[in-house]
Amino acid sequence: MKVSHLNNIHFIPHVHWDREWLRSTDASRIKLCYYFDRLIDMLENDPQMKCFTFDGQTAALEDYLAIKPFQKERIARLVKAQKLFIGPWYVQPDMIIPSGEALLRNLIIGSQYAKSLGHCMQVGWVPDAFGQNKVTPYLFKQIGMKGIFAWRGFDYDTLEDSLFLWKGNGDTVLPSVHFALGYGHYRGFPENYEDVKKDMENFLPKLKERYKDGEILFMLGSDYAFPRRHSSQMIEKLKNDQYPCQMTNPEEYLDTILKTAKQNNHELTVYEGEARSAALGRIHAGITSTRIDIKNAMRYYETLMAKVVEPMISITRSLGGYCDQELVNYFWKIIFKNQFHDSIYSSSPDSINHTVENRLLNLRHGLNELIWMNFRFLAEKVDLSELQDNEDILVLFNTLPYARQDYAFVSMIVKDKDFVLKRQDGTIVPYQLMNEIKETCHDIEYYNGMENFHDSGEVLEGTKFKIQLKIDTSFLPAMGYEILKVCFKEKTEKTLQGDVVITDCGAKNKYLSMNIEEDGTLTVTNQLTGETYHRLHTLVEKGDDGDEYNYSPCIDDKEIRINDTKPTVELIEVSSIEAKYRLTFNVKVPEKVVNHHRSDEKVALCIVTDISLKANSQTIDFETTIDNHSCDHIVRVTFDDIYTSHQNCSQDQFGTIIRDNVITNQKGLDNGATEFVLPIYAMQRFVKLNHDKSIMAMISRGPLEYEVEDNQKICLTLLRSVGKFGKADLLIRPGRSSGYRMDTPSSQLLDKKITSEYSLFFGESHQMSMLVRNAEVLNTPVQSRYLNDISRQQNQNLAWRYENIDLDSRVELMAYKKAESGQASVIRIVNNRNEDIENVILSIDADKKCYLATAQEEKQEELINKDGKICIKSMMSNTFITVIIE
């Protein structure tokens, strides 16, 4: 075959390494050790084996070096010599489910580890994420990458060439390479050279069409694939047969193809937005709700880390406290390991899902202890000499950089039910005792300082009392703490006053009026606009013939409307600050799916929803628990807007994204698409219809999968129960299974109670910033601890109240943390509005020096501190900035 007209054929030897997918991390680690031993030997001893790319991540390298630390020097030599390419990720994550801060920190920690070994690969590497996020180019540009390599989600209709420009947030544009036939289209050369030439004749015509400038890319590797020992020899033989080919790496290839495109005056296609096509590779619409219990927990812990743990540490560090960033990063790495794409998808055998659950347990223990360290610090450093013997303290942290307008939940075990809460100056802080006592965490770490085994024992004996209450948070400082006295044997007539009024079967405040109908749906009037919404919170159930990858409908399935069975309704909280109703639905649903049909046998399904309206609030809050006893089904809750739109607007990692409710540009199964892509999407915190009328938005504290039906109905998935790792011949995905056809009983969530929290926000059309602020407050509760084991000494004379920073109301906090190196602090701020803003004000101590910095925490420009006010001149829409504070 004559190929001299081609500029070049490039082979990138690589591997896609799933830390855990078919096997657990430790099972894969065995294979990994043998893999790296052979790879090091090959790269050191075969001079023609020019380079190798290890999947754009570093966690697997840590896994290997944990077993063989003596190999670190050899690996560092190969990395420094740019024979072994690693980074910039710590793990290959999903790009859509994790938060923006989690994705960014994954890159920061991964790239810094790679640099410590000599070199970090300077391109973003996304071989196997199930669809591409629109923030991807912005994310990689912020971390200093020169380009991107990606696969799933793109198709030939939108990209005429595998080289294109990907436009991201702000003014970001990054050159990007699409793996034309997938990241693993050529696992390695056959042993027989004649077969190699046949491969070239087979693949080159296909690839030529995708590389307009003639720089043809062969991906020489795939999942767990070790490079053939004769790879370099085969490339030499091809050269001798006049094939203009070479072994290369992603950095070198990107430079080459861009240079050639420039020489050819090739005007590259500009692509903007996310990529969710299944024309070339499956994107698996359904992984966003598989094992929703795990996904809810992961959302909780990544938020807790970024919005609570690190800010609390930063507050106490500013007062002389101490915590190494390496300790914090250890727990970030646990989060990242759970956000590895196959792990967070829960598209794995049961053993992997159990591994993920174990890491969630480690996070629960570790993050609770990191939180407690800050309460211990204050107990030991604050001047408590004025406390009397009958006075203990309650410490409250607000880790948001602005004043709040909500209610803090406080749980205490006390020696006397009669007490008064007072600020240091004696001002009484009223509270409202809760009727219902919620279960709190019973880890030993949680008992430190708040509850301990002795206190719990005395509760059982009746000598101490467990009480729970709510306090108005409006007096709390921004990004700081306040200590209250708990004064026993005192009483007060002062009570917490709100604007909630109980009605016949509902409640109202100055913003909202809600009524619970006989079928359990809500009718809500937005009192700011006078508009009334009906059929809110309708629960529906239907069959799911899919697997851990995809939701797929059953044949002849009919949706069951749970509300057709009249619920029991109880009023469980009654006060002027909160009205809470409990609705209990007991219904029968089909037991399972057999041969694509739902069975005739029925089993019980119990759904309990607590509906709460609080004082001065524009949200109605829901907590729904599903007691699941059936297989192969999905449960959703729906909310009808009074307006319609063909599009929806949801929050993504750095702002919002507009999506079509119906996917109209599908290639279709009949035309060779790998699956029929359903309009099932993922959000970060909220979703609304995309219109400019009054706002009705759904805010979530856990569930992230939504769909909009009939251009009016927002549907939130609360449960997806499936029993197969992979399954063949689905209605929406015919043919082979994804993954392997194995049973995964844990993903049925049988006999489990799955709890999800979410809210409905109602506002005027101009209140998008208020919606964002409400989403932040709902997901970042005040942290409190009641302390009775205290010194009542002067200690180090720290104050009872402290405010650290205050932030402009037009922006939100992404992170407030210790610098990765040195003793400075770092604050990251995001403008998730759809408009540029100017003169953003950050209030800090007047003696601090501040610098605009890169995401990698490299100083760029000093910011003038004028009497404790820092002015950031401008921020583009849907972008963030990083500030170093010294």
TrEMBL record:
Q: Which GO terms describe its biological process?
A: mannose metabolic process; oligosaccharide catabolic process
Tell me if Metal-binding is a UniProt keyword of this record.
yes
- Output the Gene Ontology terms for molecular function: alpha-mannosidase activity; carbohydrate binding; metal ion binding
Give all residue intervals belonging to the Glycoside hydrolase family 38 central domain. 282-360
- Classify the source by domain of life: Bacteria
Q: Which family does it belong to?
A: Belongs to the glycosyl hydrolase 38 family.
The cross-references to PANTHER family, in alphabetical order and at most eight, read: ALPHA-MANNOSIDASE 2C1 (PTHR46017), MANNOSYLGLYCERATE HYDROLASE (PTHR46017:SF2)
> What is the recorded name of this protein?
Alpha-mannosidase
